[in-house]
Design brief:
Layout: E1 2-7, E2 15-16, H1 19-27, E3 32-36, E4 43-48, E5 51-57, E6 60-65, H2 70-82, H3 99-115, E7 122-130, E8 136-137, H4 139-146, E9 153-161, H5 165-178, H6 185-197, H7 224-237, E10 238-243, E11 246-254, H8 255-271, E12 278-280, E13 288-289, E14 297-298, E15 302-306, E16 309-317, H9 329-341, E17 346-352, E18 359-362, E19 369-375, H10 381-402
């Protein structure tokens, strides 16, 4: 299998591609721009977008490396998924590693730590037809199914088992990774050990949009890291499809989604507010519209609500901007629409550092102020969270100004 090694948002040197390989790349949802090289038939320059990771299709193995580095990416993604503070040192990383190998080794490592105290057990409700009474008899089912026969007995009972949701999530994630072409023998062995340890646990296919959350307490807190890493794998990252006779599989993460989720979770923690107060575009409790007729709906990434009134609006933007470092005009127009619809004096666009420079734009005639901030994602997770706390002070001040409270200087 031929390898193509790319870096997020960077134009590659030309690659020789057959027509079928070029078309296969174009059909996949990899966000890769394909541009013919001048004067060279069959050669193409490739420019990835916001998706990073690895995918295999049509005899090609495509690696797209994140600018911030794989350990940093996974630290941010795990924090966004479940407020888990996995640090760079938690990921066994080598410079030539692909994202699936790093994640597989991390999953196996955290599984060993969690399972060292024994597999988690819990009670699960079971329904069965038995020749002895166990638990409670389901009389309606007994009459309907058995027509008066005394045996077997339709019963419902609680089973103490290791076949619980937390173990099922870990097994599903390990199985999902194991079908990929991992280069690391250590990763393959680790996944094999994980699956072997969970041999009695059901293998459940969790759709990416329906991965259950786990509530933690003193009995299962030691499972938090491995479960949240598993949820990350199942929710955001695994990609597999079939187009006719062509099969593609891989492990991909969209940096737009990772950045927005991380920023939202980190700001909530820094501000000490819940998802009900600082809302994402996915949990808005009311429709925001720009026009009086209510036909032009808006969904800001971030909004702070108090008693049904919005006090702050912001948008997370992990995207490439022009060479001058200024925020694109469409983003500013979008923020102006948010501040107009919500009747706010200010709005905040938050980019990843390196994508746009900090700036302020006072809008003519209406007096609204559109601010642009840049969040540096380099360094350790703790360093990034410290920068978010500074940004949170700015958000709090904008909230206070919207309430008519004199804000403290940032």
């Amino acid at each position: 299998m031929r390898e193509i090694d790319l870096k997020e948002y960077e134009r590659s040197e030309p690659y020789k591609l057959s027509a079928s390989e070029r078309d296969a790349l174009g059909r996949l949802d990899l966000s890769i721009g394909i541009e013919p090289a001048r004067g060279e038939d069959g050669w193409y320059a490739l420019t990835p977008g916001s998706k990073v990771g690895a995918a295999e299709v049509g005899g090609l193995s495509v690696l797209i490396r994140p600018k911030i580095g794989i350990p940093n990416l996974l630290s941010l993604a795990c924090y966004a998924s479940g407020l888990v503070k996995l640090r760079s040192e938690d990921f066994d990383f080598h410079s030539d590693d692909a994202l699936p190998d790093v994640v597989a080794r991390a999953l196996a490592r955290h599984a060993r730590r969690a399972f060292a105290r024994g597999l988690l057990h819990g009670y699960r409700a079971e329904e069965d037809a038995l020749h002895t009474v166990r638990g409670r008899v389901r009389f309606e089912d007994q009459i309907r199914r058995r027509l008066g026969a005394p045996l077997p007995v339709e019963v419902r009972y609680d089973e103490f088992t290791d076949d619980v949701t937390a173990n099922r999530l870990v097994k599903a994630a390990a199985a999902r990774l194991r079908v990929m072409r991992l280069r690391s023998a250590e990763a393959r062995r680790g996944l094999g050990w994980t699956l072997g340890t969970l041999d009695n646990v059901s293998l459940v296919e969790f759709p990416s949009g329906d991965v259950p959350a786990i509530r933690y307490d003193r009995l299962n807190e030691h499972y938090r890291n491995v479960v949240e890493l598993s949820r990350l794998i199942l929710r955001r990252s695994v990609f597999e499809s079939r187009r006719g006779e062509e099969r593609a599989s891989g492990f991909l993460m969209d940096m737009n989604g990772v950045f927005q989720e991380f920023l939202t979770q980190a700001l909530r923690e820094a501000l000490g507010v819940s998802a009900r107060t600082l809302r994402s575009d996915e949990n808005l409790s009311r429709t925001v519209t720009l026009d009086e007729a209510g036909r032009l709906s808006l969904k800001p990434d971030l909004s702070w609500w108090e008693g049904g009134v919005c006090r702050f609006v912001g948008d997370a933007k992990y995207k490439r901007v022009g060479g001058d470092g200024s925020a694109p005009a469409p983003d500013l127009y979008q923020m102006l629409a948010y501040t107009t619809a919500l009747d706010l004096p200010k709005g905040l666009l938050i980019y990843a550092k390196g994508e746009a420079d900090a700036a302020k734009h006072r809008i003519r005639h209406c007096g609204k102020l559109l601010e642009v901030a840049a969040l540096d994602l380099s360094g350790t997770l703790d360093e990034t969270l410290a920068r978010v706390r500074v940004l949170a002070n700015r958000v709090r001040n904008m909230r206070d100004e919207a309430r008519g409270i004199r804000a403290a200087p940032v």
